[in-house]
Design goal:
Blueprint (H helix, E strand, L loop, with lengths): L1 H8 L8 E4 L3 E4 L12 H9 L4 E6 L9 H10 L5 E5 L4 H5 L1 H14 L2 E6 L23 H7 L5 H22 L4 E5 L19 H15 L5 E8 L4 H7 L9 E6 L8 H11 L4 E6 L5 H6 L3 E6 L1 H7 L2 H8 L4 E2 L1 H4 L3
Parallel strand pairs: 3-4, 3-10, 3-11, 4-5, 5-6, 6-7, 7-8, 8-9, 9-10
Antiparallel strand pairs: 1-2
Length: 340
């Protein structure tokens, strides 16, 4: 079935979206001049494969000095590279120092044909940067008063957050100048209270910070290459969280769910909630440690990509399971995207 997918990808040389009929029928966009509902080639690709194929992806967490470490490990394990590469601006001194290395890899991955995803585990703007994975850093808290200051124009904490956004905007601007489209996923797991930015539902909560961040980077910094990913986690409150943490469809392009509750796994209920939340927009598995099976993706075909979490992929899945998924007929790897 992999041979069939290679044949399907040849359609990208046509001037219009085409169809190939066989045991499966799929609509594939012409990648160099994508026809679709948005101005982004990679986002239109997600629209085109939704309901048919799912892109394999993996995150490359610390260290930023080795920004393709886990992507390369998938290739070592399976003989194929995932179709989605992900990096992180991160928060520790050494990783902040190596942000340029990570961004260089993002550009390199885009040139290879990867879908590029970038996230940001940010330090608390009310405290210090760099910081750690502790209660003085990423896992710290803001008081209600500090939260109000963060969202209030011109306060010390608000200006500090903008200064931190200025720092990462420099790198995102580099990608813009190279025509690299970025699936940007800040403030991820918005319903996860362990992070300083998360766990605040409602209009003045986490979604307000997401809106502020979106507007600053798109309007003030004019980063027109960002494809915004709104992301929540699979808690039992998911149905309510998909409403209470939604910043509004005008603020995001992709709705993603991080699936870490392995007891309930890739349940139909979670899928149905995200399909409803996504509306007509693509949905994705933003993070996971236990990978879905190809069979699960066939019954939940609107997941446009899954992103395994770095080393956890190899701790929670056997090599056979990883190989079976990566080589499945309904899973897209880098060699099948054929470039932008």
């Amino acid at each position: 079935m992999k041979i069939l997918k290679y044949a399907i990808c040849l359609i990208v040389n046509l001037s219009l979206i085409g169809q190939v009929k066989s045991q499966k029928t799929v609509v594939i966009p012409k990648l160099k001049k994508t026809i679709g509902p948005t101005r982004f080639k990679s986002l239109n690709y997600l629209y085109a494969i939704s309901g048919k194929y799912t892109i394999a992806g993996i995150h490359n967490r610390e260290p930023n000095a080795e920004p393709a470490k886990w992507t390369d490990q998938i290739n070592v394990t399976t003989g194929r590279y995932p179709g989605l590469w992900s990096g992180d601006f991160l928060f520790q001194q050494e990783n902040i120092f190596n942000r340029q290395t990570m961004i260089n890899e993002a550009a390199k991955q885009w040139s290879k044909g990867s879908v590029v995803n970038v996230m940001w585990h940010a330090c608390n703007p009310a405290l210090e940067q760099p910081c750690g994975w502790d209660k003085k850093g990423v896992l710290s808290k803001l008081t209600d008063q500090q939260w109000t200051e963060l969202l209030t124009e011109g306060t010390v904490i608000n200006l500090r957050w903008k200064a931190m956004m200025d720092e990462i905007a420099v790198y995102l601007q580099q990608l813009k100048e190279k025509d690299v489209e970025v699936l940007f996923r800040p403030l991820h797991e918005m319903n996860q209270g362990v992070f300083w930015w998360g766990g605040r539902p409602g209009a003045s909560g986490t979604r307000k910070l997401y809106q502020l961040t979106h507007d600053y980077l798109t309007k003030n910094k004019k980063l027109s290459n960002l494809i915004w990913v709104w992301d929540i986690q699979d808690f039992k409150s998911l149905a309510k969280d998909a409403v209470n943490y939604n910043p509004g469809p005008e603020y995001w392009d992709i709705a993603a769910l991080d699936i870490y509750d392995d007891k309930s796994g890739f349940s139909q209920d979670k899928y149905d909630i995200m399909v409803k939340a996504g509306g007509n927009k693509p949905i994705a598995i933003g993070e996971c440690q236990k990978l879905p099976s190809a069979g699960q993706l066939k019954t939940q075909p609107k997941w446009t990509f899954f992103m395994g979490w770095s080393e956890l992929v190899f701790e929670h899945n056997t090599n056979a399971e990883i190989n079976n998924l990566i080589n499945a007929e309904n899973v897209i790897t880098l060699d099948e995207i054929k470039g932008w």
